[in-house]
Structure formats: C-alpha cells, structure tokens
Amino acid sequence: MPEKENMIIGKNPVREALRSEQPIDMIYINHANGLGEIMKLAKEKNIVIKTVSEQKLSQIAEGGVHQGVIAFGACAGYVTVDDLLAVSQKKGTKPFLIICDEIEDPHNLGAIIRTAETAGADGVIIPKRRSAMLTPTVYKTSAGAVNWLPVARVSNLGATIDRLKKENIWIYGTDMNGSVYTETDFGGAVALVIGSEGFGMSRLIKEKCDFLVKLPMFGKITSLNASVAAGIFMYEVVRQKMLTGK
C-alpha cells in the first residue's frame, strides 16, 4: 500500500491533481459512477487504476470522505526512457542505467537511487506494477538523490530492455548462477538489472539479459540485501570505467 503522506481523497481533489499535472502513481476506485472524467484523465496519463471494495477504500481513507476515489501522488515526477538516454548523450559518455525488477521495499529503492546517483549513473528504471514508487520514504532514504537522478517508470520492462538493446546497451542481470562480477567486462554501455528482494529477477527479464553476474558468497547466508548488492555491482562498473577512462 502506498504511503498516507501522499494520499489525495475525493472526486474534486483527485480531478484537480490530475489536471494540474501533479505526479500521480496510482488511483484506487470503488466504482466508475460519476468518475468518468477522472478515469479518462488517468488513462490518458497511463496511471495505474485499481478497483477495490467500498470497505477497502474506507479503510485506506481512515475516516476521510473518499467519494469512491483515492489517489496517491509521487514525491517527484517520472521521466521517459528517452530522457535517460539523453543524459549520456549530453555528457558524451556511454549509457549507465540501473533497472529495478520488482524492488518492492521503498527503503531498498531509495538506497539504490542514492548509490546510483553517487556512482554517476544516468538514471533508474522501474516497472509500473509490483514495484515501490517514489514515496516520501524513498525520498528520505535516497537522501534527496531523487532530486538529481531521473527515474523512468515503464509499463513493460521486457519491451524496455529490448529498446535498450537496440541502442547498443548491454544488459547485465544479477543472478547467483552468473559469472563472478570482478571477472566480467563492464567496459561498454551498461544497464544493470537488480532483482527483487526475495526472488531475484523474473524469468522473462533473466532470459533477456546479455550477461549474468554474481557476488561470491563465503558465509552461511547466501544472499545480500538488494540495495547492498546493487551498490557493489555499481561500483565495479565505476572502477572499470575509471581504469579504462571510458
């Protein structure tokens, strides 16, 4: 459930938020009666709409008069994949992108964004479904990095990866069956995929990767927190770029 700090309750507030171009992550509705304009605006902006019961909507509203609709705003706006690609073009460098595959913990997403910004990545890509959004917790955990690092939110992660491949960007997936990360060449254009906290990358995304890389594990625990692992991989990319000057 999105965070209450960014909750917008009722027909008029939600409609005006949509009209004003305020970043909206998701809309919950109980019925479509009298909500035609809101539905139309949301669909035009490709905003996720979820239909829930009256009881669930009242529970979310916590006593507020919801009139059948509640929206959750983002703490920052999203950009397009084209915007991310334009970053490296402007810098005159090879693309360096981070793809989060179903990272649902906002603390992990915030930490990944923070590290990606410090590592000089061009941006982060997240899916619209089964992913944390740009909530106040993400903003806080990122230490404000969401103000500086663009985030693209896409409907189809697989299609986005196909698009990146057409731009000659290599896709590196993080998986325990991959090659040791220090033995992998990250010298070209890089899109690094970080899988979900509990299950790693989804099957489809894993199949689309050009390379699979892993961290060696020597203890009894065989996995790391997603944001910790992401930071190690990102700085290996940075290390190799510094050595080659590319």
Question: Beta-strand level of the residues, as a percent range?
Answer: 15-25%
End-to-end Cα distance, whole Å, is 42 Å
Low-confidence stretches: none
The radius of gyration over CA amounts to: 19 Å
The tally of beta strands, per DSSP, is: 10
Class from secondary-structure proportions: alpha/beta
Mean pLDDT: 89
In spatial order, strands of the major sheet run 7-6-5-9-8-10
Overall geometry comes to elongated
Order of helices and strands: EHEHEHEHEHEHEHEEHEH
- Tally of helical runs: 9
Q: Give the fraction of residues assigned to helices.
A: 25-40%
Largest sheet: 6 strands, parallel
Give a written overview of the molecule:
The protein is an alpha/beta fold and 246 residues long. It has helices at 11-19, 36-44, 54-61, 81-91, 106-118, 136-141, 157-166, 203-208, 226-244; strands at 7-9, 24-29, 48-51, 69-73, 96-100, 123-127, 151-154, 170-180, 190-194, 211-214. The strands form two sheets. The chain has a six-stranded parallel sheet with strand order 7-6-5-9-8-10, sandwiched between helices. Strands 1-4-2-3 form a four-stranded mixed sheet, with helices on both faces. Helix 2 (36-44) links the parallel strand 2 and strand 3. Helix 1 (11-19) runs parallel beside helix 2 and helix 5 (106-118) packs parallel to helix 9 (226-244). The longest helix is centred in the last third of the chain and has 19 residues, at 226-244.
